[in-house]
Amino acid sequence: MSGNTSYPIGVAGQSWRDAEKAQWLARQAIQRSYQQQVLVALEQVAPEFERQQYGELDYRQYGAGCYPLYAFSNGLAADKVTVLITGGVHGYETSGVQGAVRFLQTVASQYSQHFNLLVLPCISPWAYETINRWNPLALDPNRNFSAASQVAEAAAVVGFLKQLPLPVLAHIDLHETTDSDNSEFRPAKAARDGEVNTNWDIPDGFYLVGDSAKPAADFQQAINLAVAQVTQIAPADANGCLIGEPVSQPGVVNYPKKALGLCGGITEAPYVTTTEVYPDSPTASPEQCIQAQVTAIVAALEYLKAKGY
Fold first, then answer.
1. Start and end of every Peptidase M14 domain (predicted)?
2. Structure pTM?
3. Architecture in CATH of 18-306
């Protein structure tokens, strides 16, 4: 852990009100295109994957646009198990989005005969465009996946998944841990909440976050073994931790996902994991990070196949 980092908005020890949130929003700017980098790319998916709009974010009042929210699926056949793949809960975590896109563009069709695949490639498109963790209201979708969610990005997903006629067997949620977690997002959160910030050490490599209620250790291990062929698995720090949490096995920590309102807790799936890659590592390129995400999805599917699903 490193020491406190201040933030240029607000007064230390006082949580933000509307004025501070407006000041934060005024600092945000569109830096890339959801339409061009995500939606256009998703025109190149296998024909058996149909696009379904499950919501829309109207952020014109914040100087942005309307963002359609899409899911891609090869159907929900009763004789196949269902696997959910989500990306872009945090829009700034680029390979989470692009990994989901790449999976749909390349190997997804190879698993259509075995699984119902449901892919939500970019849950937070405004945050993707502004390279941000929060939505325009300075709220983190990944602490707000619940039935009563007031965060539009999370509420849209929760409402959509409620309509699924079949249970979800596995959920792979694609994320990154970046240097900006310490330089921007953790200090901003502490300032917003009127708290003292203490940064964590950023793990150099890939790791997984399982669910402490259902850790599925063999499932996590199978994913890490596959990803280790693409990029390094993050070693624990001197205290035996990753992002401040004790490792449960090499390259894995566990969180109580449902209790924390995390995306990985939105289903009752027995197999759940959140991927975390480190795009700022001197040993990893953006392409390696995307490949690591795709490899993680494939390894999860291969594990389930080997289990007889």
1. 30-309
2. 0.97
3. 3-Layer(aba) Sandwich (3.40)
Domain positions in the chain are: 18-306
Straight-line distance from the first to the last Cα atom of the chain, in angstroms, rounded to the nearest whole number: 42
pLDDT in tens, 62-84: 999 999 999 999 999 999 999 99
CB 279, CB 94: distance < 8 Å: yes
Angstrom distances, CA of residue 44 to CA of 28, 101, 111, 120: 31, 9, 17, 15
Tokens 């040993």 sit at which residue? 283
- Whole-angstrom Cα distance, residue 179 to residue 195? 21
HSE of 270 in the Cβ direction (CA atoms, 13 Å)? Answer: 8
Strand partners, 171: 84, 272
d(CA 47, CA 171): 23
